[in-house]
Structure formats: C-alpha cells, structure tokens
Design brief:
The protein is mainly alpha-helical. The protein is built from 4 helices and 3 strands; from the N terminus they run ααβααββ.
Length: about 160
C-alpha cells in the first residue's frame, strides 16, 4: 500500500512546524532559566542573615564585620589563654569567636592579613610582641605590662 504523496508532504510540513516550535520553546526555557538564576542570586545578596553562622557575603569588607579593636581584643585573649600562637592560629580563633565559616580559605587569609596589620600596631605600643616566624608565619605572644618594645623608632 503506497501512501498518498499529498499526505506525506502535509505530515512532513507539520513535523517541521512542530520541531521549530519545540526549538523556540527550548530557547525560551533557557532564557527563563538564566533570568531565574540571576534573580535568585540577587535575592541571596539582599537576604544575607548576619546572625547565621558563616554567612559572610562574597566581597564583604572585613573591617565592617568587627567593632573598633574587637579583632585585637580577641587575639590578645587567645594569646593570654593559650600562649604564643601564629597568625594562622589567631585567624582561626577570630573566625570561631565571630561564628564564621572556618573552612573558607579566602576568609582565613583575609583575616590573617588584618591580624598582622592590627598586631603590628599594638606591637609598637607594647601590648603584644612578635617572637619570630614558624614556617613563614609570624608567631605572636602577649607582652607583660610595662615592658616596652625596646625600639621606639621601629618602622614596619
């Protein structure tokens, strides 16, 4: 039984029409998925819950997460309780004290740089001292009251 050429032609035309329609719908779905992803990312930026542990938004300015002198106070308390600690260990103590994510490598590194800046200033004032380096990381300890740094002309 041979098919009517008109029927086959009509079916092929309908098939091509449906395929084109499906292709257009797939492109619209892909566009809608990209739009949805962008909207969800924007919502997450605005819904950051500062009280939730580890909820530090990307590109947050670290100095805004701490009150004036808070990082130094946390470091000094850790040094008084545990003895000499290196910068990495102090960074972990600060992150724990603030309830942040300890596994965030970039956060640990950023906090460590801020600790070095803060403690170098306090080293000049005599509150802490640097006891050299261990594996390329500065070791810090508390300095007894009344004991100065010994070199008031020390420049960083």
């Amino acid at each position: 039984m041979a098919a009517d050429p008109q029927v086959v032609t009509t079916l092929r035309r309908k098939r091509d029409e449906i395929e084109a329609y499906i292709g257009a719908m797939e492109r619209q779905i892909a566009d809608a998925q990209r739009d949805l992803s962008a909207i969800n990312a924007t919502i997450r930026l605005y819904e950051v819950d500062a009280s939730a542990p580890g909820s530090v938004p990307a590109y947050a300015e670290i100095h805004r997460l701490f009150r004036r002198g808070e990082m130094t106070t946390i470091c000094k308390q850790a040094l008084q309780q545990e003895g000499p600690l290196d910068t990495r260990e102090l960074a972990i103590r600060v992150i724990r004290a603030k309830g942040m994510d300890e596994d965030d490598r970039l956060l640990r590194k950023t906090i460590a740089f801020r600790i070095v800046q803060a403690l170098r200033l306090h080293e000049r004032r005599g509150g802490v001292r640097s006891d050299g380096k261990r594996q390329g990381v500065r070791i810090w300890s508390t300095q007894p009251k009344g004991e100065g740094s010994g070199n008031s002309n020390c420049h960083v």
